Amino acid sequence: xxxxxxxxxxxxxxxxxxxxxxxxxxxxxxxxxxxxxxxxxxxxxxxxxxxxxxxxxxxxxxxxxxxxxxxxxxxxxxxxxxxxxxxxxxxxxxxxxxxxxxxxxxxxxxxxxxxxxxxxxxxxxxxxxxxxxxxxxxxxxxxxxxxxxxxxxxxxxxxxxxxxxxxxxxxxxxxxxxxxxxxxxxxxxxxxxxxxxxxxxxxxxxxxxxxxxxxxxxxxxxxxxxxxxxxxxxxxxxxxxxxxxxxxxxxxxxxxxxxxxxxxxxxxxxxxxxxxxxxxxxxxxxxxxxxxxxxxxxxxxxxxxxxxxxxxxxxxxxxxxxxxxxxxxxxxxxxxxxxxxxxxxxxxxxxxxxxxxxxxxxxxxxxxxxxxxxxxxxxxxxxxxxxxxxxxxxxxxxxxxxxxxxxxxxxxxxxxxxxxxxxxxxxxxxxxxxxxxxxxxxxxxxxxxxxxxxxxxxxxxxxxxxxxxxxxxxxxxxxxxxxxxxxxxxxxxxxxxxxxxxxxxxxxxxxxxxxxxxxxxxxxxxxxxxxxxxxxxxxxxxxxxxxxxxxxxxxxxxxxxxxxxxxxxxxxxxxxxxxxxxxxxxxxxxxxxxxxxxxxxxxxxxxxxxxxxxxxxxxxxxxxxxxxxxxxxxxxxxxxxxxxxxxxxxxxxxxxxxxxxxxxxxxxxxxxxxxxxxxxxxxxxxxxxxxxxxxxxxxxxxxxxxxxxxxxxxxxxxxxxxxxxxxxxxxxxxx
Length: 735
Description:
Layout: E1 2-9, E2 12-17, E3 20-25, H1 29-42, E4 50-56, H2 63-77, E5 79-81, H3 86-105, H4 116-136, E6 142-146, H5 153-160, E7 166-170, H6 178-181, H7 186-196, E8 201-204, H8 207-221, E9 229-232, E10 235-241, H9 248-254, H10 258-271, E11 275-282, H11 289-302, E12 310-317, H12 324-344, E13 352-356, H13 361-370, E14 373-376, H14 385-392, E15 401-405, E16 418-420, H15 425-437, H16 440-456, H17 459-483, H18 487-499, E17 503-507, H19 527-537, E18 541-545, H20 550-557, E19 563-566, E20 571-573, E21 579-581, H21 589-603, E22 608-611, E23 615-619, H22 625-642, E24 648-652, E25 656-661, H23 666-674, E26 681-686, H24 692-697, E27 704-708, E28 717-719, H25 722-733
Parallel strand pairs: 1-4, 1-6, 4-5, 6-7, 7-8, 8-10, 11-12, 11-14, 12-13, 14-15, 15-16, 17-18, 17-26, 18-19, 26-27, 27-28
Antiparallel strand pairs: 2-3, 9-10, 19-20, 20-21, 22-23, 23-25, 24-25
């Protein structure tokens, strides 16, 4: 196996001095997480594992130096750099990524900037990444694309290569609700969804983000799902939840190494017996640091007994200073810290120790281990690995309290933390007091439970889980590919057709010969279809098995030399004859059910009822997809209960469900036509659940059964779409 990790940045940043280039390891959860997995694999007995890391090197490298740099880092570090000019990177990273996507996906719509030039550069940089990947990719590679910088990339790769690869995409930030996402211009939001759906597997940190994405593709693209599996572009895309973990042992075991112990002793000597409240964050308006400071200020005001007894250590790591909102926040932060220290501090004690810099690992672990309280209150956060690091770094002592925002992704796993609303200053203040005064035994119990959970699902398990799921969905798609009708299958069908003397071709209508339309009466046969059917009827016994009403089929096909079946077999017209009623079922049930269905239709705007002789159809193709998804499930449950003692069947089709008598079905009609002669060639093509009865009837017979689409079926083969059906029929015409 060869894993290609693709992220905006490489696991190091380039430092340039004149023409001298040095490399500095990158920080961040993604880099540390994937690096931990790669280190684990290197030290394991797995011998056939290879990897490449593809990304931007962190600085512009002159064109004359690019080739040598690429060769050197590929050999020494297994990385492939993607070169981007400074101007393009400004518009890509500081522009579209962090002035459009970042604020929008974190629910700060008023901060969002919409700039067409930056959008075009975003697309261009994604294309640069695609070109690099296409240069190095091989059959069998696993491509794992990370985060919001590269959301167009999966589809770009899929469209530009025919290599047998697996494509996974993971979003490390929240995916917003549909109502927020649709704020983006129509073209952008469509292309981003298309880009992500180029993957085989799409992963999110929490079920909330997964649900938001599924809801968004339903509302914008009309794509529904079955247990997170979405049929898209002739394959199945899996959408699932994978909460990212940390390298638990690294933090847990580091509490007792010499450097950390030395650092802990220095901190203890400096702070004496002060109770430590700790916050570690990047500079970002989504992190809720200003509200955190307000909460701490309120705590000091409300609890004067703690003046001189607590200290708030606030560590802010510089980030994105080139974006105006970040510089504004830095200014506000500096001002508020000064005000709090000025109001409450004295010559011997300052309530806030503020460090605006990156903290070395051992210093960080020492602070985690000593802190009585970790105060982590983002306004919105994809996961927040700092919360997990704090819990792991408590080591064996297990003495501390985590105060965590309820809207951080990590809150779903760390439920023993004191969960707060990050906008509620009083709640933050009260939680600080509760945390400081919490009984030690309760602290230990909470930490133990959280440690157990994040130890069991650490970053290694996260990677393994994602890659295993990627393998699984790829296997499922390969099984589907085996069932998809191939050129060899088409040749065999043609050969059997040519050798046969007595041929029977049975075809469904809607969704098989014509596309679905917003209203059924609009889905009429076009000239090309009429031509196909007329020519085919001269070479075989041709039957249309449809759920359509008798009058529709008679209007468009009654004069042709073909046989017809209406209302799923309730009426049959053999070629050259008149219509015959095949069912004598009682239809008194329709009166009461029509009243119920009219009530349903009133509750689902855009739906309508189609009454047939022996059945009733409820159409909802024109309805709001989300509302219909909810309402139809509710209606179906009620109808199943209502019809349980009646001889009725409820069939769920494509944006329609139908209620009919059990004895009325397409299989009965198909059996009628099959029994008319001794056919030596039989084929049936259909597209939905109403056709499954025929597929099952022919399962053990010497017959071809073909289902349109990739959903599971009793059919022996699948075909991708209506145009492919017509192409197959034309092959039989041109024998």
